[in-house]
Target: Endonuclease VII domain-containing protein
Amino acid sequence: MPLPLDDQDGQRRCRDCGEWKPLEEFCASSKRPSGRGSYCKPCFNVRSKASYAKRMKEHYDREVKSAREVPAGHHFYADCEIVKPVAAFPRNRSDSTGYVTYCKPCHNRRTRETKRRLHGGSREYHLRRRYGVGQKEFDELLAEQGGVCAVCGTPDPEHLDHDHRTGWVRGILCFNCNGGLGQFRDSPERLARAITYLRGTTWQRVLIHPGVYQMCSPTRGRPPSQRS
Model:
């Protein structure tokens, strides 16, 4: 079967730009024996955009904005229509450009406004997203604890503690107690060994007479350091 006039040695001439290109550079088409269309991919994209703009104008009377020329390493800033370096934009893997439409300060501002509009603030958003409770439930749990840390009794704790295996909320702790449980990996065995260690290495104050105390050394350990 002879090749069409626009096919030679695995190449084809684009009907728009007239250039000879490999078949791989043409859009797929089930109507051609080779499985490739008559237009190379750049020309096909130009035709597709022009067709879309024509349909939008005829059916919706809307003008489609032409593509902006952006230098390499830069990105268009949608809020004030300024071209900025890509370093000024947060990354976004789901976008074809790899970056968010808004620069970092404006992106952060829009995120805060969205959290305030949908959740009433960043804290409510954080509590709902991470723990599944809101500020109302937080305040109720804190009231049940008497307004103090569930471990050490420090007033007005601010950290919601949860089981890292199940995600269930356990209580409200102060910064130090919440961090301490995390450092011990929520392990009762580690905490028990730590208590045993402290009891065996910490000097104890023992009452030997009313109002008189004596410092007793632990069963093991080094004596206190002496400063000259």
